[in-house]
Amino acid sequence: MSEHLKQVCYTWFDHYYSQLLFKAILGMKTRLSVFIGTIWTQQILSLIYFEGHRNRTEKWDTLDRVPFLEYNIRKVDIENRPSPRLFSSHLPYYLAPKSLKNNKAKIIYVYRNPKDVLISFFHFSNLMVRLEASNTLENFMEKFLDGKVVGSLWFDHIRGWYEHKNDFNILFMMYEDMKKDLRSSILKISSFLEKDLSEEEVDAIVRQATFENMKFIPQANYNSILKNEFGTRNNEGAFLRKGAVGDWKHHMTVEQSERFDRIFQEEMKDFPLKFIWDLNDEANSNHSAK
Questions:
Q1: What percent helix, strand, coil does the chain show, rounded to 5?
Q2: Is residue 184 one of the residues assigned to a domain?
Q3: Which cellular compartments is it found in (predicted)?
């Protein structure tokens, strides 16, 4: 294992896993049905695949329906899990199970503009006991831009998955598009998954997958999981904080924003996926950082 891979491995699995489990995940042979990212997508897929989740007759947490592959805190038997095998992950492409390559397994990669990722990650790190807190946004921004956070460098993560997209059966979804038009996004996801849904089923999924409604659904909002299984520094925060597009404008100074812009342009100047930095200024925000 290279020194770089070791560093990323320890970054991802510190407090949770040993190298032994890391190697097991990398080489696992289990047939994965769908491999996704974000808590929001956990809820959407739970609603698409499970009628009992959709009509609220079953009270399973989304963490049990779509467990995190690298954070298996509930000791899910991955190898013997019945179909459909749904997993969440924030792993970079080179730490994903090798069996995902050239496989029928479907991957949904949800990406978000990195300024809002930075702000969300800053608040989340300060809330979670298991993560290193930062006294200031400036301090956290330094770590974020150096890749010294869980998941390593954001630019490498999205570039890695995109540049190797032909090795996988992958759909890229933009977080901001999902915020703008959740119904169309759910239809796009269900089409990719080859799941036929009635109008009534789509309506039920849209209703229960809005960020605002998820905050009040115990099976989806992670409140009890944070408190009882992860551990928080205080009772003032929540896993689902705002979910707003452009919240970075309320936190970053002009100097911080302009510095981030310069680094973004250098790292992503030839990257084809578009980014939206503010829904109110979408016409001028479709790639370059603003």
A1: 50, 5, 40
A2: yes
A3: Cytoplasm
For residue 232, the SS3 value is strand
Q: Is 90 a catalytic residue?
A: yes
In a domain, 142, yes or no: yes
Does residue 289 sit within a domain?
no
Q: How far apart (Å, rounded) are the C-alpha atoms in residues 76 and 107?
A: 20
Interval 156-176: pLDDT, tens: 999 999 999 999 999 999 999
What is the tally of structural domains in the chain?
Answer: 1
Identify whether the C-beta of residue 50 lies closer than 8 Å to the C-beta of residue 206: no
Among 4, 15, 90, 250, the one annotated catalytic: 90
Helix axes 254-268, 154-163, angle to 10 degrees: 30
Looking up residue 172, the CATH number of its domain turns out to be: 3.40.50.300
Q: State the DSSP code for 227.
A: I
- 194 within domain boundaries: yes
CB distance 40 to 182 below 8 Å: no
- What range does the domain containing 25 cover? 3-284
Vertex 72: Cα angle to 15 and 226 (nearest 5): 70
The structure's pTM equals 0.83
